[in-house]
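User: Can you predict the 3D structure for this chain?
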Amino acid sequence: MSRAGEVALVVLALLAAIAFAKLAAPFLIPLTAGILIAYALKPLVSVLERVHIHRAVGAALVLAALTSLLVGGIIWVRDDAAQALAELPNAARRLRIAAHETAALPTNPIGHVREAAVELNRAAAEAVGNAPGAGTRTPAPVAGPSEVQTWGSAQSSKLFGAFADLALAALLALFVLASGDTFRRKVVHMAGPTLSARRITVEILDEIDTQVQRYLLVMLVTNALIALTIWGLLALIGIQRAALWGGIAGVLHFIPYVGTAMTTAAIGVVAFLQFGALGPAALVAAAVFAVSSAIGMGLVSWLQGRASHMNPVAVFVALLFFGWLWGGWGLLLGAPLIAIVRTVAERVPAMQPFGELLGR
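Assistant: Here is the predicted structure, written as structure tokens:
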């Protein structure tokens, strides 16, 4: 086969793999998340095994402790979250009034655009000989769910789906952790009969262990630092329920880049509702964005660069790709996946140029 034919075959195989990953997302997302969770929790299970606790029991204990920690955190902020939800109607009313007052200003650009649209509609009606108000009546709109209600319903369904995927991932992680090195030995055996192929496979698996554990450790430490810092900042400013918003900021930052934007927008709206003015709200949002950027983009990028030796541009492009492929789950899983791809590419001769592209 010619060189051009080989390239065309590789491109077609790559496109087929992307299409399969897109269509099989409901299956691949919990599978990938479960394997990554198992990699992250493997050191803890190994510690319990060294003190003569069976791997299956240790895996169940570790996952139970992690679940208890998450549930405890939810219970801790439950009252504040319930109060925030109870204030949503009043908050929406205040936002609507503020938007109406802003739109009523004579120098408001939105008002100018609206007036231009009215004039264009009038000109179009006169051009076809059907002036507005000349005996024609516009039928009354049919009542139905608003766009906000439809959006809220869709997001609630996605949230329940995310919890279901997380539960499946935790169950898979339990099975992987309980099986010990069985899966690892099978992969090494499948690598081939030669000692060199098996050695390379062992090196790849060890490096994957290290990369995933380093990535998740860095994310855990920096997200906890973001949560504590924003909590202290908001408490110092006087924002109500500062602990709740700090915890939300720490959780959202698991989603790279998008989490920072969502945190900044949400806390900016909260500050506007509390202070009733755009100036203080903008200052609070700017302070939150500065903290999130300094820790989340500056510190995390530096730590991840030292831990995984990844090219930041390649990581950003990979996150865009996985975000398009799997949505929010893709943004969350994209960084460790691209680190795994780089690890494999550096040790497979045919993929070494790709590994060089991903490396620093």
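Residues 25-91+165-180 form one domain. Residues 195-237 form the longest helix (43 residues).
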